[in-house]
Task: structure prediction
Amino acid sequence: MATTPTPSTSEPVTFQRDANVLVVTIDNPPVNALGVDVRRGLVAAIDAAEADSDVAAVLIVGAGRNFIAGADIREFGKTPQPPSLPEVCGRIENCSKPVVAAIHGAALGGGLEIALSAHYRLAVASAKLGLPEVQLGLLPGSGGTQRAPRLIGVKPALELMLSGRHTGAKEALSLGLIDRLGEGTDALPQGLAYAKELVAAKAPVRRTRDAQGLADTEASRAALEAARADTAKKSRGLFSPMKIIEAVEAALTQPFDEGMALERKLFLQCIDSPQRAGLIHAFFAEREVLKAPETKAAKPRPLESAGIVGGGTMGAGIAVAMLDAGMPVTMIERDEPSLARGRAHVEKVYDGLIQKGRMTAEAKAAVMARFSGSTSYDALAKVDIVVEAVFEEMGVKKAVFAELDRVCKPGAVLATNTSYLDIDEIAASISRPADVVGLHFFSPANIMKLLEIVVPGKVSADVVATGFELAKKLKKVPVRAGVCDGFIGNRILAVYRQAADHMMEDGASPYQIDKAVRDFGYPMGPFQVSDLAGGDIGWATRKRKAATRDPKARYVQIADRICERGWFGQKTQRGYYLYPEGARTGTDDPEVLAIIDAERQRAGIATRNFTDDEIMRRYMAAMINEGANVVHQRIALRPLDVDVTFLYGYGFPRHRGGPMKYADTVGLANVLADIREFAKQDPLFWKPSPLLVELVERGADFASLNQSE
Ligand code: 3HC
Ligand code: NAI
Result:
């Protein structure tokens, strides 16, 4: 650039003149979020442009990988510092000289709202534009709800805001969100050329607030009503989607300034909602889980090719996940028929996609060309990683690992997908325990996002780091877990599932419990989940553990009575619910209620009524208490690791942030008081976790253990 002084790099917003264009650069790593200093800097830049008669136009660009990722999320919930973002946007829009935004990388939320306040917009093809505030429990709060509908029309604007999705620049151009598509990846020179062109053409300032995208009011109203009906059906108790619609309605019915005032009011309501706190906790927690000690200490090993042992439910799902990530996969099965079944399981997934029109036969063939199968372990000699997914029996696992030890190349990562078995014992059974790690996928493994990375005592850090790298490759969310019965997720599940069984025996029906859990925000209740997964799985586990069960511990036999009848859930057309003719949604079964009644009588239970509120208090107290134990014993590094496990593996409602975040919201003293109350009837089951007691005594919460939050 040919002009004015070199900008100071410590300032997050700098500006300098290039001929008669004032180039304003936002440089606020990592993502140019609009923190208070950036907001101040932008106002100062516009002031400078207005004051300098040699400036004919302003260009706003982002330094680094993004234009602007949005408001600084870390500021939410803290005392607001002026100027507010709507003020900054207003200042930009009211500038008397044309303002151009040149976008690369992310222009999201407040970032896009800044761009919408500019008078002209250019984006390079790889840019990502969007209004994702809904995913944080918010609405676009800097004029997005007023400017976007005016610019591109109500229907597409609502769709962007309610989905929160990112659009590419090409689509943004066709929507009218931007004026020009840039070439390559460098936005600055193209933005500069655009600004100079506008100056030369004496282009006027062109304010989005005056745009005419709302012209067809009837169609806009219809779009609004359709969105309202759809959102009422789908948003399941979420607060901000309806507020978005209300704000957009104001764009249709009220002058701009009044619409802005309403948007502000609704935005602040969203900011104050616990859903916003829960969703933003989830946003940071899912980034925080990536920062395990091993990922900081070591580099991952190579990860180009994979082997899978076992082609059943999990092995096939894991194979698909790896194939989808572009890896060549070799599957080992015990005999040819089993191998053929394993291969068929894999193909079935792709055939399903073809049937739905989401994949072509050629694409399937290309993927399957990377898949090979064998009944000989020697086929695994060259692979970088093996995931074992055979029967859940220690003897079988050890035999498999002995083979892996024999054939795999030095440095290959040897992983087990065991649900409950002691991985230290598996590791100790071979000559290279440092290479053994747990990779606990969730079913269906090609779909479920959670991957527990289970860290046995002898494993080397680079093997653990490789687990995290694999998660990244497979687009999964990794959570580091220690070795114990059930790791983080299944261990906690076992406890709150028992609490549900206790309530069922004490007088609540499984249907009431499921409904209370759904009303809390889960997609399904625990008995529906059991019917979906197959009651036989839990039954086998209970039988296996019968010998070691504490005879004094309460044991509800209802599930056994149901399984003894061969009612395993959806696959047998009945479980807790009836699924006539393969229905996916169950209906209540009076015969199950009769079994439950008989079991209550056999156990001598005096039944009582439960309110939905009490059901949830017990369900959550059991989950939180075991979550605290898991953190206390360092099975989970922090409470947030428990939260992410439940958000991604167990359907916990995201807007509540996870069970530990929820506990903080309710107040740990209240949770502990509940546990002590419940303990009066069953002190063996309801033992307060030492960590929970300690935190309550200190007046602290789980968030205080999440360090970098
Ligand atoms: N505020 C504060 N920090 C943010 C942030 C934001 N808006 N967006 C990202 N970060 C942080 C992340 O927490 C992470 O921090 P860490 O390194 O300490 O863990 C760092 O920036 C890098 O983020 P990612 O790991 O996510 O980086 P990626 O390159 O994978 O993704 C991104 C970049 C697509 C911009 C992604 O970070 C993202 O989606 N960010 C959030 C975008 C968003 O929701 N914007 C709307 C904010 S609300 C708003 O604008 C309200 C307004 O309408 C008033
Ligand atoms: P499955 O019974 O569907 O599949 C097991 C497969 O392993 C079968 O195809 C069998 O032929 C094969 N096999 C058995 N012994 C073998 C050997 N010696 N060599 C090669 N192949 C052999 O079982 P599923 O459900 O896939 O479970 C596998 C593992 O994954 C278990 O450890 C289980 O605990 C774990 N897991 C299961 C989950 C689930 O939801 N099903 C979830 C997470 C983990």
Summary: The pocket of 3-hydroxybutanoyl-coenzyme A (ligand 1) is lined by residues 30-31, 33, 66, 69-74, 85, 106, 108-110, 113, 132-133, 136, 138, 140-142, 144, 284, 287 (CB under 6 Å). The two ends are 40 Å apart (CA to CA).
